[in-house]
Amino acid sequence: MQTQSLSEAEEIIRDSQEYTLFSWSKQSGTHPIAVKYADGVYLYDYDGKRYIDFSSGLMNVNIGHGNQRVTQAVVKQMQEVAYVTPSCVTKVRGDLGKRLAEICPGDLNKSFFTLCGATSIENGIKLARLYTGRHKILCRYQAYHGATMGVISAGGDPRKLPVDAQQAPNFVHFDLPYLYRWEYGEENLLKEAVAQLERLIAYEGPGNIAAILLEGESGTSGCLKYPVGYLKAVREITLKHGILLIMDEVMSGFGRTGKWFGFQNHDIIPDMIAMAKGLTCGYLPFGCLQVSNKIAAIFDDAVLPLGLTYSAHPVACAAALETLKIYEDENLFENTIKMGKYMEQQVEALKQKHPSIGDFRNTGLLGCIELVKNQKTKEPMAPYNAKPGEMVVMNKVAAKIRELGMYTFVRWSYIFVAPPLCVTKEQIDEGLAIISAAIKIADEVVCE
Fold it and tell me: Are residues 364 and 340 in contact, defined by beta-carbon separation less than 8 angstroms?
């Protein structure tokens, strides 16, 4: 009996499933898209089907796919030198460090180059403890900082629960209410959020706390908005107690919110900034921990006990430096602000059509639509950390989105809306039309 031959796409998927492991997935349940090439805001598979990428990959491909300026910069650097140890230097390393010092506010002038967001934050935690001589790190529930053992413990995301018994010590979490489900008036929200943090600091002992770690703007937890004025209040508290403030800008950095960094929407300057994603837009793995002069100065005459084999990798530095130029040359921040406002207008119109849309939280082009079973009770279409049986409706919505030609991040009751910063009005309309068609599935189960 003759066996049927596999298509090229089927063979590619089979080999990946048989010989590789997939992140955050039941391995027998993966249905990946076999991507042949990508351009701008679109992905193309081996059958020629086009998918609009409405989450910029994992909210990292800010400049869009296939920008050949990055390719050319990478090739040029590889032709000169592809790798040197971190104890050597290259021109591109210094050029990138100098450019980041110009971009970052205050005295955040020193770059420690890493491999990704997790390694940026890991090293920030180490540095905070070394600098202060303290051990505790305060972190938010419903925040995600990465998957290595240290930062998954720092995060408040339920993905850490399967490895909870092995978690790293001295991370203390606090809850932070957000307006959509706060029942006691917006004027009381900031007061309660700040008072809760002050109580926690008193309970834990301010002299034990090395740093507070927060996202510049909330990402995969649902783009949860800070109470207005909250980060300014946090900064005042940290300065009062000699606590460092580390901002995780891995997702919200590099134009995603319309500014270089998300925290700049809140008029503060932290002590350290963790970067990755939009620094190279995923063209190469790369990260950076940006550190203030004050912190860096203590290592002028003492050994800095941080190190990575691929720190300041020259090819990744070249990709980053060219990416930073692209943001400015193509006016991507201005486009983000303009398209973000347009997105908000269009989603507001969708709310009138779809009773399942409960809330839309967005800053620039970092947003998510939250679906609910009832707009008055605000019961989510799928609960926080939903079990498979609670994801039936949202799984159908996600499947319809993909069937109609969209790739985007769907989690619990959230549909993420974070396209590349080069997106146009026409492409936003195209994407929202797909989401609107898929949301009709959720509308059918809404309880009035």
Answer: yes
Contact between 48 and 318 (Cβ < 8 Å): no
Tell whether 2 is covered by a domain.
no
Sign of the CA dihedral running 158, 151, 115, 251: positive
Q: Do 164 and 289 share a domain, yes or no?
A: yes
Q: What is the pLDDT of residues 42-91, one digit of tens each?
A: 999 999 999 999 999 999 999 999 999 999 999 999 999 999 999 999 99
Task: Please indicate, yes or no, whether residues 311 and 359 belong to a single structural domain of this protein.
Answer: no
pLDDT tens digit string along 272-316?
999 999 999 999 999 999 999 999 999 999 999 999 999 999 999
φ/ψ of residue 395, rounded to 5: -65, -35
**Alpha carbon distance 254, 260 (integer Å):** 4
**Domain housing 148:** 68-329
**Sequence-separated (6 or more) residues with CB below 8 Å from residue 279:** 253, 254, 286, 287, 288, 320, 323
Residues 324 and 335 in one domain: no
Q: What are phi and psi of 80, to 5 degrees?
A: -90, -60
In this structure, are 75 and 188 located in the same domain? yes
The verdict on residue 3 lying in a domain is no
If pLDDT is split at 50, 70 and 90, which confidence band does 29 have? Answer: confident
Phi and psi based region of residue 177 (left: phi greater than 0; alpha: psi -120 to 50; beta: remaining)? beta
145 and 32 in a single domain? The answer is no
pTM metric for this prediction: 0.97
Asked if residue 352 is part of any domain, the answer here is: yes
The CATH number of the domain holding residue 410 is: 3.90.1150.10
Torsion, Cα 403 409 411 415, to 10 degrees, reads -80
| Residue 44 belongs to some domain of the structure | yes
Has residue 225 got a pLDDT over 60? Answer: yes
Helix residue spans in 61-140 (DSSP H): 68-80, 91-103, 117-132
Same domain, 131 and 27: no
Beta-carbon neighbour count of residue 164 at 10 Å?
10
Contact 396, 404 (CB under 8 A): no
pLDDT tens by residue, 358-414: 999 999 999 999 999 999 999 999 999 999 999 999 999 999 999 999 999 999 999
- Selection from 442, 351, 443 nearest residue 392 by Cα: 442
Distance CA 411, CA 384 (A): 9
Residues 59 and 76 grouped into a single domain? no
Q: CA end-to-end span of the chain, whole Å? A: 57
How many domains is the chain partitioned into structurally? Answer: 2
Say whether 327 sits in a helix, a strand or coil.
Answer: helix
